Structure prediction request, 164 residues.
Amino acid sequence: MKARGTTKSATAFRTISEVSSDLDVPQHVLRFWEGKFPQLRPLKRGGGRRYYRPEDVELLRQIQNLLYGEGYTIKGVQRLLRDGKADDDPEARRAEMGPDEPDAPGAASGDLPPGVLDTEEDLPIAALDGLSDSIRQAIAQALDELREARLLLALGEDKEMREA
Prediction:
């Protein structure tokens, strides 16, 4: 049995609770991100238990930084990962993406007033200006929880319709 307080090697697989604790991100947010970022594929063992490889944890850190640290939307991060630009210098990314693009940090959504959601995927970045990182993260997590609840409700309604 492993003694408390010892740490795993850098190459060891991590459970969802270990990753959640390390990144200070709730487990449900990690599961939500799995559905949004196909590059993220933890191993799943008996009972659906997740095991994250070191490269999964690094990708999660990157996603967390892009969403919460740099202020990208989920769509923006998806695009950066898809285009292989997530590792680029943040200044170079911003210059290339441009402030008028809806997925860029600090970009307003179309012709809507700042802070109004364009789609359910967009984080109202303009409404978060001036808030501390911890408050921004709490708001982003709350939005993730609401999206997950919406998904669960839709799945439940779909199941009810099939059973009727």
Notes: Residues 133-163 form the longest helix (31 residues). Residues 101 and 107 are 6 Å apart (CA to CA). The beta strands are 14-15, 43-44, 50-52.
